[in-house]
Amino acid sequence: MRNRVDLQPAYVLHTQAYQNTSLLVDFFCVDYGRVRAVAKGARRAGSRSRSFLQPFQPLLISLSGRSDLKNLLAVEGSVSGLTLQGVRLFSGLYINELLVRLLMPQEGIPELYRSYQQAIIALCGEAELAPVLRRFELSLLEALGYGVDLQHDCYSAEALDADAHYLFHPDIGFERVPPPVSTQTNPAVFCGHELLALHRGDLADKAVSQAALRLTRMALQVHLGDKPLASRSLFTRPSQDK
Predict the structure, then answer these.
(1) I need a surface site. Which of 117, 134, 202, 239 has the fewest CB within 10 A?
(2) Does 98 lie in the same domain as 48?
(3) Dist. CA 186–CA 123, nearest whole Å
(4) Residue 56 · residue 92 · CB < 8 Å
(5) What's the pLDDT tens digit per position in 186-196?
(6) How many domains, the chain?
(7) Measured between alpha carbons, how far is 210 from 107 in angstroms, rounded to an integer?
(8) What does the pLDDT look like over 129-181, one tens digit per residue?
(9) Residue 174, CB half-sphere, CA atoms under 13 Å: how many?
(10) E strands, 181-227, in order
C-alpha cells in the first residue's frame, strides 16, 4: 500500500475510542482490503468526520502513513447512507465482524468488496436474510482461499450424487459415506441434493437453508478459532440465522 492514498472507496467495519478525542477505525477498502487508521479528533463535538464514520455508508477516504496504522486525512460520503434496523442491522454487524476477524491487513480483494456491497444493499431491501448471509459467507471463504467445492467428492473427484450422503471435512471438502447415515446425529453429514441446491444458489427450501447454515458455520469456525463472535449475541431468538 502506498504511503498516501486519495479518494479510496471504503466502508467502516468497526470503530473504537482512541486516546482522548480520536477514533481507531477499521475500513474495508476496494483496493487495499482491511485498513486500520486513526481519525484524529473524530470524537470531538462538531467533528465533520464523525457523522461519516458509520457502518454501511459508502465513503471516499484519503489516508497517509508509512506504518500499517494509517492516518485518516479526509472522508466524505459518496452517496446517501444506507440504513439498517433490527435483525438486518445485526446481520450487517455480523458480516462486518467476519471481515475484521478474517481479513489480513491491507490485502485487496476487489471481488469480495463487490460481494460485500451486494450483501449490504440486499439487507437494506426486503430480501430473505438467510440466503444473503450464506452467499456472502461462501464468497468470503472463496476469496480467502478456503472455498468449498459443492460439486465433487474430495477423494474420488466424482460428481456429487443427489441421493447420497457426504461427510464434510473443513480442510478438504466432502467425502461420500455409506448408508445408513443420519444428518441429525452428525451435523457434519449432508445430503447430496442439499449441496447441489446450495451450489446453484437455491436456498428457498428450508432444509437446504438449514444445511447451508451448518456448513458455513463449520467452515468458518476453523478460521475464527475459539473466540466467539460478539455479533452473534445480538440474535436472541432461536429462529434467527446467525
Answers:
(1) 239
(2) no
(3) 32
(4) yes
(5) 899 999 999 99
(6) 2
(7) 32
(8) 999 999 999 999 999 999 999 999 999 999 999 999 999 999 899 999 987 76
(9) 26
(10) 189-191
CATH of the domain at 25: 2.40.50.140
Q: Which three cell numbers stand for residue 170?
A: 473443513
d(CA 67, CA 55): 24
Could you tell me the three cell numbers for 204? 428457498
Boundaries of domain holding 140: 86-145
The CA R_g of the chain, rounded to the nearest whole Å, is 20
Round to whole Å and give the CA distance between 175 and 142.
Answer: 19
pTM of this structure: 0.90
In a domain, 220, yes or no: no
Q: Is residue 37 part of a domain?
A: yes
User: With the C-alpha atoms ordered 224, 218, 128, 29, is the resulting torsion angle positive or negative?
Assistant: positive
C-alpha–C-alpha distance, residues 21 and 154, integer Å? 53
Same domain? 56 vs 16 = yes
Residue 236: per-residue pLDDT? 57
For residue 35, give Cα distances in angstroms to 101, 144, 161, 191. Answer: 13, 16, 43, 40
Measured distance CA(107)–CA(109) in Å, rounded: 6
Q: Confirm whether 216 is domain-assigned.
A: no
Alpha carbon 67 to its chain's center: 26
Task: Render pLDDT for 40-83 as a digit per residue (tens, 0 to 9).
Answer: 999 998 888 888 999 999 999 999 999 999 999 999 986 566 78
102 and 62 share one domain: no
Contact 183, 165 (CB under 8 A): yes
Final residue in a domain of this structure, among 77, 96, 130: 77
